[in-house]
Structure formats: structure tokens, C-alpha cells
Amino acid sequence: MTTQKLDIDAVRQQFPILHQQVNGKPLVYFDNAATTQKPKEVIDALSQYYTGYNANIHRGIHTLAEKATSAFEATRSAFRTFLNAAGTEEIILTYGTTDGINLVAQTFGRSFIGKGDEILISTMEHHSNIVPWQMLCEVNGCVLKVIPVDESGELDMAAFENLLSDRTRLVSVVHASNALGTINPITEIIRKAHHVGAKVLVDGAQAASHLTIDVQALDVDFYVLSLHKMYGPTGVGVLYGKKDLLNSMPPYRGGGEMIKEVTFAKTTYNDLPYKFEAGTPNIADVVAARTAITFIESLGKDRIAAHELSLLQYATDALQGIDGLRVIGTAKNKVSVLSFVIKGVHHQDLAVILDQQGIAVRTGHHCTQPLMQRFDITGTTRASFAVYNTTAEIDRLREGVERAVKMLK
Amino acid sequence: MTINEKQDEIVESFELFDEPLDKTQYIIDLGKKLPAMDGKYKTEDHLIKGCQSKVWLGAELKGDRLYFYGDGEPEAQIAKGLISMLIDVLSGHGPEEIAGADLYFIEKVGMNNLVTSRRAGGLSSMIQRMKQYGEAYARLLA
């Protein structure tokens, strides 16, 4: 394990966007759970692709096509290493987490989940891990069941065990909650789900940049993530799936790349991973995504996590002194997400006043309306921290919140 | 005072503020002073869609003049301040005048910059609803 602390000033130098004034104040960017900012090497990689070797991939014979194809496939290899998948054929490149979940719902779901079968999700799921399953249930008559969340924002594991049955076909849960920060015990969830013969999908959108993920050690069936939450470009995601499982699933979208041969009588489909990658993919962003992985690995996930957790602790201590403030999500294990409400203050008003002080936070239901209903609130203010954030910025947040409270109360 | 005279008056008072936060404070204070709305208007029909926080708007014709009543969630001070300003400008005028009003003060005082784009969606929904009332009552009076 790397123990040396990160040089955050040096890290910040790699993010051009951070060095600007917003509403006359130096920007404090605390909306990292929505999307992180991008280091210069990611931005440069995009530019280099378009200025140096833009071409459509896989079928071209010419040099640029070869170069683009090999850069594209190099990213797939980097993801394989990043997730410790057994092979690159298990790495399906998608447009993001939502896309990956929909792919599984429409292929695995339609083929292997039938009328009366059950899908387990949890109260803390993002709408992206609720709606695709509701859509599936409407079509094929399967049943969606929900694991409750306790007051601290942790899953009720006893209830989870009670909900598991021989009708459970799939458990689809978030690794780390975008609204609360809770890190779920996915190792235990996967083991228990497998015990009743259910498959498990883990939504890793909020976890992938903070936690080490070893899909083989986890024995997870599907793992999905988005690169834009990991210092990479938008429009790139990964669906990891076990090879045998992916092979047993029908293709998702029809079109180019996913076919072997097309006649009007019959089409045969390509092998993994291309079977699930119809059409020209988001080549430039996929190519640039590799530099995001390199960025994370060069800093070291353990060092990133240590820094972010120290920020979370500092922020939790700093904000808790504010009169009427209540942290929503106090689980023992959290990623660097701090969600809170303040008595007598509407979160939208708070966000407007913070923005005027150059501080970017997210407010609202965070696409987790059932979770907000669970806590009987309409929304929260959420500050989420990334590797380039500092305690000085948290001091600005505290001052900003205090000023807002004074103005509003 | 005409709608435009009222708008000019607001623009003038906002010019006194150097800091955006002072403008926001002014709007918040307007929100705090907004009189409580008659409960009969606090229905689903009077709820304005597109606002992040709940905002209700009702209208009543007295003679040939249209009067507006608005309210928001108790905590949503900025939304209440915005509705208060719109009522201040438009209430008590003829329906046709309201329907055709050019609300230039919003941009001039930077109300559109004070609100996030999603809330601006709410602001435009408030304006749209007030103008719809104007149009409907103008037809009624025609």
C-alpha cells in the first residue's frame, strides 16, 4: 500500500477548470458525485485523437483506422486491468451506467426473468437502477421488491435475507449511494444472492473512482460504471459481465459491429464483446478514457480514498456545528458524499446563495425520490469531494452555508 | 402606476445594489413579507408546474382589473420573493395589459441570473400562468 500523502496543489494544477472565478469568487467545485472535472491529459487525449488519428474503428485497413482501433482496444484492456476481469471480452463499452443497466434489463432480463420472478433492488437506488426494472416488469410480469434502508442510511440486511427466495432472479444494488454516500456490503450481498441462485448487478457509478474493485474476487455477475464520474469524459461506461452469462444473453441493439454476417434470411451475431456494441461507438471519449484510468492509477486509489475520507471527516465536523443542520446518511462506511438538510432553509435557496459565492453543490432529490420519501424530505444539499478538493474549500463551504442561513432565517 | 412604471421603479431600486447577494437578500425579504394566501387557492389546480419548490398562484377579477395571489412552501424564500415581485408588477391591471406585458425588468435586475436554469424554468412557468390568466379574463371581458 502506498502511504505517502498526495501533493494536492500539484494535483490541482492538472485541472485547468478549477482555476477560475465564478460570480467573482474562486470556484469551489463540490458536485463531484454528479460529474468530476477532467485532468489536462484527458482533455489533451481528446484533442490529440481528433487532430491526429480520427477514423472509424475495427473495419478500416488504412493506418489511421488501425491506430484508432488499437487506441480504442487499449482502453478496453485498461478497464480489464482496472476491474481485474478475466478477459477483455467481459468488458462491454457502453455510454454510461444507465446504458449498462438498461442493456442487462433488456437482454438478461427479457431472457431469464419471467412472470412472477423477482428482482431485488434497494430503497437507496438511483432512478437508473429502478426504472429499467419497472419497465421490464411491465413487459414480462416480474415483480420488483425493495430492500429497506435504516435511519443511518444502511441497508437492512436482515430484511434483505428475508426477501431472498427461490423466485429471486436478480439482485441489483448500488455499491455506493450517490445521495447518502453509504458503501453497501456487496461481498455479503453477492454471496447470499448466489446462495439462492440469483445473479447480482452492482451499480458502481459512485464507487469506481474511490474503491478498489476486483470483479473476480467479488464474484459479481455484472458491474456497471461511468467514466465521467472518474475524471474521464462523458458518454463512456463499462458493463462488466461474466463471460458465460454474456454469451447466454441475446444482443441488445442491432446494427453494425455486432454482426458476423447479415442476409435477409438470417443474421449471425459477432462474438463478445462486440455483440453488445452496435453502431459506431464513442471512439474519441473511449480513447481519452484510458488517460483517466492512468490518472487514477498514477495517484493510487488508496491515497485518493485516504484524502477524500479526510475531507469527508473534516466537512462533517465543520458543518455539524451549524444550527439546525442534519446530516442525511450517517453510515459507518461512506464515500466522500455529505448530504444535509437545514431546518427552515430550502435546499434550492441554499444552492443559489452558495453559487453566488462561487460554490457548486447539488441540491434536490438526486434522482433518488423513493429514498427522499424514506427520510420524509423533498431533497438535500449535497457536497461531494474529489481528489483535488481541499480543507480550505470546505472552510469556504461552511462560511457560505452560514451566510445563507443568516440571509434566509 | 402602469406595468412599465412599476418595472422601472424596481429596476431603479436594484441599481442600488453592488453585490448579487444583496439582490438576493432583497428578494428573500420580499418573500418573507408575502402575505399568506387564502387557503382556497392552495390546491393542485393552482400549483405551478416547473418549479423546484411548490408555488401556488390564484387570480381574481374585480371590476375590470385582475388581482393575483401567490404563495410558496414556507421555507422557499426565493421562490416566494420572485412571485411577490411578479404580483407587485402585474396585479391590479387590466387582463389584456397583463397578457401583453413585456416583462423587461427580469433581465434588467438580473432575476434570471439569480436563479438556476431549473428555477428559471419555474420563473417562466409563473409568468406564463399569470399571462394565461390575463388572456382568459380578457376573453371573458370581451
From TrEMBL, chain A:
Enzyme class: transferase
Domain Aminotransferase class V intervals: 28-397
InterPro entries: Aminotrans_V_dom, Cys_dSase_SufS, Cysteine_dSase, PyrdxlP-dep_Trfase, PyrdxlP-dep_Trfase_major, PyrdxlP-dep_Trfase_small
E.C. number: 2.8.1.7
Keyword annotations: Pyridoxal phosphate, Transferase
Cofactors, names only: pyridoxal 5'-phosphate
Source taxon at top rank: Bacteria
Catalytic reaction list: (sulfur carrier)-H + L-cysteine = (sulfur carrier)-SH + L-alanine
Pfam families in UniProt: Aminotran_5
NCBIfam families: sufS (TIGR01979)
Family note: Belongs to the class-V pyridoxal-phosphate-dependent aminotransferase family. Csd subfamily.
Biological function: Catalyzes the removal of elemental sulfur and selenium atoms from L-cysteine, L-cystine, L-selenocysteine, and L-selenocystine to produce L-alanine.
The protein, known as: Probable cysteine desulfurase
Organism expressing this protein natively: Ravibacter arvi
From TrEMBL, chain B:
Domain Fe-S metabolism associated: 11-132
Top-level division of the source organism's lineage: Bacteria
Gene3D superfamilies: 3.90.1010.10
The family this protein is said to belong to: Belongs to the SufE family.
Name of protein: SufE family protein
Organism: Ravibacter arvi
